[in-house]
Design goal:
The protein has about 70 residues and is mainly alpha-helical. It has 4 helices and no strands. It has one domain. α1 crosses α3.
Length: about 70
């Protein structure tokens, strides 16, 4: 999977969880690092929630993990 394909897949994961909210609507995360580490799109998105987004959007944890 190329990096662009990875990002498209991550955007799809986010859209499926957060409905109408995509990667461009959320704070930046270490996408390239997640990709280089061989993470799946699902795993990378979960890390983004815990590493970046939870500080900026406290309610995201409830939405993401329910």
């Amino acid at each position: 999977m190329t990096f662009q394909e990875f990002m498209t897949a991550c955007d799809g994961v986010v859209l499926s969880r957060l409905h109408h909210i995509g990667l461009n609507d959320l704070p930046d995360a270490a996408w390239r690092d997640y990709y280089d580490d061989g993470m799946s799109p699902e795993g990378a998105c979960e890390c983004a929630v815990l590493d970046y987004w939870i500080d900026e959007i406290p309610s995201i944890e409830v939405v993401w993990f329910n």
